[in-house]
Amino acid sequence: MGNYIRFDWMIKRLLRDKRNFVVLDGFLSVLIGRQIRITQVLESEGNQETEDQKFNRVDLLVEDEKKEKILVEVQNDHELDFFQRMAFGASKIIADYMKKGEPYAALPKVYSVNIVYFSLGQGKGYAYHGTTVFKNMFNDDDELKLTPAQKSKFGVDEVHGIFPEYYILRVNKFDDEIRQPLQEWISFLKTGEIPDAFTAQGLKEARDILRVDALSEEDRKMYNRYLENVRLALSLDDSSRYEGYVDGHIAGREEGRAEGRAEGELQKALEMAKKMLSDGMPIDLVAKYSGLTPDEIAKI
After folding, report:
1. Three-class DSSP category at 19
2. Residues 6+ apart with CB under 8 A from 130
3. Contacts (Cβ under 8 Å, ≥6 apart) of 77
4. Residue 4: helix, strand or coil by DSSP?
5. How far is CA 98 from the centre of its chain?
6. What are the E-state strand segments in 65-148?
7. Could you tell me which residues come within 8 angstroms of residue 38 by beta carbon, excluding any fewer than 6 positions away?
């Protein structure tokens, strides 16, 4: 275990305290490229108390001073339809926070920030930014722009300022070369360490707030259990269903869960299931994440 708490655990536990907003403020400011000041944490699946039992995915919805909504999601294991879930998440926020009867000009701006620890899609990089632009179908040099009246009314300069924006950090793809503040943050997300030379906004405060030795005894036990669950989930990594996937290319499939599961893999699944059951997780969720059948789980 490193000296600092994982970012997803910070989202799960520490960001309930407004005094700790400064860390996420720093990360989002560096990522988005403007000063972000979080004013409140909004209710989302990731910051409910029941999330103490979830380890493969953590999400947090916050609002900044401009009333813009920022969804931060950390995904630990492989998910083929993750792109679709990103689109759904941003759309749901718009639907939830667009009040009935309001004009379309009141549409909330949404940022979807996705930190993933698996090979999402195909690409050579590790940091991606997606926006909505409208190109002339017969002239690539022509892009649809806002009128001066629209800019004034909506408070944005470009069309993409109206639509959701997406950020994807494929942490495991980071090449460890650091030239910019964002790369310092990605290095922390990958290694869990914050060298003294790092000066990116928010990391100075993170050195104090995210220290493992600053946790209470109860939180430290929960954190250690969370780390173990994450390790077990990553070690399985859906290998029984997606063996051979490398950036979208299929090298081969396991033929039959019962016949193809190696003894070592079965042991990992059993250990994982035992920990889940001891944490009070229902059998259907244990089966989903461990890959075991309900009958196998009942014999534990």
Report:
1. helix
2. 165, 166, 167, 168
3. 56, 117, 118, 233, 234, 236, 237, 238
4. strand
5. 24
6. 69-75, 110-116, 127-130, 135-136, 139-143
7. 21, 24, 25, 28, 62, 63, 64, 70
Helices assigned H by DSSP within 34-147:
82-97
Token couple for 247: 């950036």
pLDDT tens for the chain, 300 residues: list them. 468 988 888 887 777 688 889 999 999 999 999 999 999 998 655 444 444 345 567 889 999 999 999 999 999 878 889 999 999 999 999 999 988 888 999 999 999 999 999 889 999 999 999 999 999 999 999 999 999 999 999 999 999 999 999 999 999 999 999 999 999 999 999 999 999 999 999 999 999 999 888 888 888 888 888 787 777 666 655 444 444 444 545 444 444 444 444 566 677 778 888 887 887 777 877 887 777 888 888 888
The residue whose two tokens read 């290998």 is 239
For 40-54, letters b (16+ CB in 10 Å) and e give ebbebebbeeebeeb
